[in-house]
């Protein structure tokens, strides 16, 4: 029986036929993996290659291409576990939660912390799946302990909300603090909210504002909205309408709807009504 050890060692005719085909298959698989990584990798996935940026949200226009590439990549033998996680993300953004859960579970079973978080969130929310808060929390806790930053912030939120266990603000603060150590803007924002509201500790607007400022420096839209509200109200500092407007503008540009409404209120405080009392416009200070 003829055994093919490598292209170089293959018998003449068989090598000529098979080795180019094998090379082409490998190239196609590599291209699928590269496309799957580019379109569906998560920025904080510990398995993500260093040269892959990742995306927080898969753009709607990219979902079909991400699904196609990730499905093809996952079909290859010995595929890295992150590809199953990325396939799960593609399915999730395609609003196919059952398929997303199956893909996440394959990656999670192989040790992907990011997939544990993804599956855990799906199980806790129960959108399109049978809700299972207990298993979801267990997966998220495992991911957090493995160093997944989204696992940390989600576990903190579960402690704060008392989901799957008794509420524990001290543990919530602990896990937000751990996530902040790895530069999580969401954790900075959430711990800022706990600090301003006095959840699990004394109210401290100055400390809360400092956390919002750290998150805002990383373009966290909700933190920018909070800084606008602080500047507008003179909270933890002097009132500064212009600073508030600047914060609200940045937050609104990043998609925060509350900031957009606040910006409209500050820029255009006076409404114009016709004789029937119907609003027909507003007067804006900057001519907007």
From TrEMBL:
Residues of the signal peptide: 1-28
Keywords: Signal
Source domain of life: Bacteria
Database matches in Gene3D superfamilies: Tetratricopeptide repeat domain
PANTHER family reported for this sequence: ACTIVATOR OF C KINASE PROTEIN 1-RELATED, CHITIN SYNTHASE REGULATORY FACTOR 2-RELATED
Full protein name: Sel1 repeat family protein
Source organism: Bradyrhizobium vignae
């Amino acid at each position: 029986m003829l055994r093919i050890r490598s292209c170089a060692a293959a018998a003449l005719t068989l090598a000529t036929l098979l080795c180019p085909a094998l090379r082409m298959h490998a190239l196609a698989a590599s291209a699928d993996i590269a496309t799957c990584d580019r379109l569906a990798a998560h920025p904080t996935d510990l398995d993500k290659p260093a040269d892959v940026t990742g995306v927080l949200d898969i753009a709607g226009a990219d979902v079909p291409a991400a699904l196609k590439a990730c499905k093809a990549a996952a079909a290859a033998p010995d595929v890295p576990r992150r590809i199953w996680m990325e396939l799960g993300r593609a399915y999730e953004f395609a609003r196919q939660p059952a398929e997303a859960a199956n893909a996440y579970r394959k990656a999670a079973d192989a040790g992907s912390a990011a997939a544990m978080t993804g599956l855990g969130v799906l199980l806790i929310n129960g959108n399109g799946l049978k809700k299972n808060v207990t298993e979801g929390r267990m997966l998220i806790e495992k991911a957090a302990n493995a160093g997944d930053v989204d696992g940390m912030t989600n576990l903190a939120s579960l402690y704060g909300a008392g989901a799957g266990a008794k509420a524990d603000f001290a543990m919530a603060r602990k896990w937000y603090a751990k996530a902040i150590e790895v530069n999580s803007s969401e954790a900075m924002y959430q711990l800022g909210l706990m600090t301003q509201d006095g959840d699990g500790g004394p109210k401290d607007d100055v400390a809360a504002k400092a956390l919002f400022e750290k998150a805002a420096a990383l373009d966290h839209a909700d933190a920018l909205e909070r800084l606008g509200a602080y500047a507008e109200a003179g909270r933890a500092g002097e009132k500064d309408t212009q600073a508030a407007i600047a914060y609200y503008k940045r937050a609104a540009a990043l998609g925060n709807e509350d900031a957009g409404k606040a910006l409209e209120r500050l820029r255009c405080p006076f409404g114009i009504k016709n004789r029937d009392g119907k609003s027909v416009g507003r007067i804006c200070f900057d001519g907007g």
